[in-house]
Amino acid sequence: EAERALGKDDPELAEVVLKHLRAEGLDIREGATVERVAGGTRLIDVHVSGSGGNDVVQGSHLLLATGRAPNVSGLNLEAAGIKYDKRGIRVNKALQTSNRKVFAIGDVTGSLPFTHVANYHAGIVIRRAVFRLWATVDNRIIPWVTFTDPELAHVGLTEAMASKMHGKVRVYRWPYQENDRAQAERTTEGFVKVVTDSNGRIRGASIAGHNAGELIQMWSLAISQGLNIKAMTEWISPYPTLSEINKRAAFSYYASAASKPLVRKVIGWLTRLG
After folding, report:
1. What is the pLDDT of residues 198-225, one digit of tens each?
2. Spatial distance between the Cα atoms of 177 and 165, rounded to a whole number of angstroms
3. What homologous superfamily is domain 146-258 in, according to CATH?
4. Angle at Cα 202 formed by Cα 196 and Cα 206, nearest 5°?
5. What is the pTM of this model?
């Protein structure tokens, strides 16, 4: 049950993937609720309801992909003074439980349920518990990838989230179809979308396209270091690679800046000077 498919991702990028999946014959029902499942002699009937009314979806197999819930029953956490709820063990940004001598990491904390998040959590706990260094969780820098074809990747804030938190935002895009490597490999579907605040600080990035999971990592680093979009134009990308898409998206900053009246006046003045 979900209001829309790929609901945690930027809808503009999610639509690229959903359009491709529908073109391959997938019947995607958004805003639908499974009321009951009935098994016949040959087919399985899934009764669903939604804005379009009630319907029955038939198939030979039924895959349940609902994820997992933390299993803490039987651990007697109460005896150690460790609080938990249905989402998992409660932790602070240092991954300490309500018993400050006990840490919890990964899926059991009810955080982002990814293997790389558990590894990230482990690094924080090692720095704090073993080396007594200051380290806390920063979910802004954690990327995720939906391994569809094409891939869908995201890190940081979506455009809607950034607008809500920072007010006026700027958005920069660059399509795969303008990249020579993508053209050579016939993987021109999709684009990069970068969101910055009004000062140009990178707040989020989303990518729909071939190898999006590889390309998103650069934006994760940029957000973790608090980089401005202009900084992402200063590295050299080997040709021809898909990584050029990231750089061209960043260069969109100068294209938008050049359209401002004051900048155009300055350019005209410099041109007259020869």
Report:
1. 999 999 999 999 999 999 999 999 999 9
2. 32
3. FAD/NAD-linked reductase, C-terminal dimerisation domain (3.30.390.30)
4. 85
5. 0.89
